[in-house]
């Protein structure tokens, strides 16, 4: 069987409000947060990733800092639905293997889990943009991967092998091109093969803290990352872990558009609650999530819940950012939890036809010139 990678570069705004919180159906989950944050981390200073990618990323010089991708719940739901339908219906493709029910936006996930019996409204197929439009948003691009670990999935996309130096999307750099150049919203689905859907435009505006996450899910040491995006850098940046405050350091990007991180120790067991606290240039506190907290722990530890540990004694003196907005020297190694994935061959054309290969990934998006 011959596999071909196809890359085709083909709104309804959500109201401003809380960010980082999960809804009643668990959108987003931990894996989805990680991939979203990794996207924004890479966009804040692409050359950090390009240095690691080396010859695999032939068009590395084409990428510059971009604004963060805003979280879009509609895209999150559309992407997770596709992740579910691929898992439950046993295929791996951008094209849904039936005519997706026109009311899937109303029935998923409460009444329909993505199985063919409820997700399909007839024989035939549904293109990815038609499927995404069922969720009331217009799709610009979609990327999928076979890896279930969010970090492996992300780097199978970002480090796909494309030696061409041309500054354009192609059939072999489409994952990376979408991640680093799309300009609107994103939603990632991770309940089966990870899926990322990007919108054409007109969606939510990036929040001051547009994304944040921790990786791995639980270990003796865990890295936390959060992106900051504003007209100026923050005056304070910290993560609050069970009432203990730890300063965040800007490891990538610029003061007004950068990725901040800290390494947490002693979090290898139990369910640890944490949240991010930044003070903007005016001194106003900005938090992620807006309310509640995120969880470090096993699957039984809620990724988000309404509880929030209070700041402990001494937190006011922790995380003050010096004038200039942080400690990063643009062009440094930038830190990060993951080296180049071993054995990664992120082009479908280079892979044998086995879905189980974690690096099996493809991208397709409808060709439409960005205005």
The tally of beta strands, per DSSP, is 15
Radius of gyration: 20 Å
SS-based structural class? alpha+beta
How large is the count of helical segments? 8
Uncertain residue segments = 1-16, 328-334, 336-371
The N- to C-terminal Cα distance equals 38 Å
What best-fitting shape do the alpha-carbon axes yield?
Answer: globular
> Could you give the order of the helices and strands?
HHEHHHHEHHEEEEEEEEEEEEE
Largest sheet: 6 strands, antiparallel
Range of helix content: 10-25%
Number of domains: 2
Q: What's this, in brief?
A:
With 371 residues, this protein is an alpha+beta fold. The chain has 2 domains: 30-204 and 339-364, no CATH class; 212-317, Sandwich (Immunoglobulin-like).
């Amino acid at each position: 069987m011959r596999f071909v990678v196809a890359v085709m570069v083909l709104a309804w705004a959500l109201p401003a409000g809380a960010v980082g919180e999960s809804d009643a159906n668990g959108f987003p989950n931990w894996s989805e947060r990680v991939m979203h944050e990794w996207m924004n981390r890479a966009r804040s200073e692409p050359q950090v990733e390009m240095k690691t990618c080396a010859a695999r990323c032939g068009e590395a010089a084409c990428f510059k800092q971009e604004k963060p991708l805003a979280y879009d719940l509609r895209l999150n739901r559309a992407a997770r639905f596709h992740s579910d339908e691929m898992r439950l219906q046993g295929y791996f493709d951008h094209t849904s293997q039936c005519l997706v029910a026109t009311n899937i936006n109303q029935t998923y996930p409460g009444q329909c889990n993505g199985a063919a019996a409820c997700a399909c409204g007839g024989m035939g197929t549904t293109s990815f943009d038609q499927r995404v439009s069922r969720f009331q948003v217009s799709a610009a691009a979609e990327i999928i991967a076979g890896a279930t670990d969010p970090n492996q999935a992300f780097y199978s996309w970002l480090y796909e092998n494309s030696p061409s130096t041309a500054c354009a999307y192609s059939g072999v750099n489409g994952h990376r091109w979408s991640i680093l150049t799309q300009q609107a919203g994103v939603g990632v689905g991770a309940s089966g093969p990870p899926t990322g859907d990007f919108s054409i435009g007109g969606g939510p505006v990036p929040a001051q803290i547009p994304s944040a996450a921790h990786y791995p899910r639980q270990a003796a040491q865990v890295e936390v990352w959060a992106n900051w995006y504003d007209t100026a850098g923050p005056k304070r940046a910290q993560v609050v872990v069970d009432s203990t405050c730890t300063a965040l350091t800007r490891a990538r990007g610029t003061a007004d558009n950068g990725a901040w991180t800290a390494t947490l120790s002693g979090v290898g067991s139990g369910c640890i609650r944490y949240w991010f606290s930044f003070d903007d240039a005016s001194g106003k506190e900005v938090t992620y999530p807006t309310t509640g907290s995120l969880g470090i722990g096993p699957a039984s530890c809620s990724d988000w819940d309404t509880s929030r540990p209070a700041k402990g004694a001494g937190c006011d003196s922790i995380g003050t950012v010096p004038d200039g907005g942080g400690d990063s020297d643009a062009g440094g190694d930038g830190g990060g939890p993951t080296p180049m994935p071993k054995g990664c061959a992120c082009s479908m054309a280079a892979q044998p036809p086995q879905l189980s290969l974690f690096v099996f990934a493809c991208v397709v998006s409808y060709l439409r010139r960005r205005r």
